[in-house]
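Input set for joint prediction.
Command: fold jointly, output tokens.
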Amino acid sequence: MTDHTTTGRPEHLRGLHAGLERAAAERGLLDVAYRIVDSPVGRLLVAATERGIVRIAFELQDFDTVLQSLADRVSPRVLEAPGRLERAALELDEYFDRRRTSFDLPLDFRLTGGFRGEVQRLLPGIGYGHTTSYAELAHAAGRPRAFRAVGTACATNPLPVVVPCHRVLRGDGSLGGYAGGLDAKRALLRLESA
Amino acid sequence: MPGPSHVPVARGVYRVMMLLPFETIVREHGPVVLRVCRSVLAAHDADDAWSETFLKALGAYPGLPVDANVEAWLVTIARRTCIDLLRARARHGTVTERMPERPSTLGVPEAEFEAQDDADRVVRAVSALPERQRKAVTYHYLGGLRYREVADIIGGSTEAVRRAAADGIRTLRRTMGA
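tokens >
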């Protein structure tokens, strides 16, 4: 066949996919929309429900695994639909360009709960360019001896960067851990201190 | 949220399976669904049928058993969607005698067909086949499904589907004068 590449090629399917994203959103069938965003700390997967941003993940965490976990824990109606994430992508760009010091995005905390959730909700209170320690955060959460649980809460933060768990360090000032890798944590702290 | 399904892999050993993100389904099966729609409809209508197929599938997806044959399920939805579209067109009196005005992009399997630049003749010849032969040829050759998967959709044994497809191709060769 000579014309195998005229309308059957990937661009055509991409166009059909874009139409599907719009129609799915209109009919309320787009439970989880996601988009891949480029950043100085590598590609980020950003996912949103109708309520708000529900997950941000580093490439290190394996996007396929992250998407499967969204399908399991939120809904299997997951589509790559950049439209819903335009504002999130823009704010992330501004943040990495040092033109933004806090995020103004609706967040969906459904992937977290209990004490972890309480700790994660405290994180945006640590200002841009500042850091705190796991112990101080435990104190702020009203459970001063639960600094290990606070460490777990930071490690399982479903919304890194936007919910700034990278601003929490060990008591001695060393980095502690980071789901996106210590290089990413270091890069974010350097970006904010400049 | 769908429940996980426990699929036995050995005595007493189960693998927990969950539904894949729907995006994976669209990427993996989008081209097959498009071929199925184009085997029945003109290009523009085929695009509409493709979108409608995946919207219906997206709506029903959370209830799909995790071990279902997703491709067979999608082809079934696509076929029904195409038929509904054809009926709607017929009711409004806009059904066209001619098949796609643009050159067909159907992947015709037999090398001798490549000499035919008039794809309309192929489509007409396929639609003139007896029902089971037409379905077997469409799903296997145009939809890219395996004989076993075609049998899942149209019923009958894998061997019967293989024979129906072979009979269909033989008739097509005769009709096309190849």
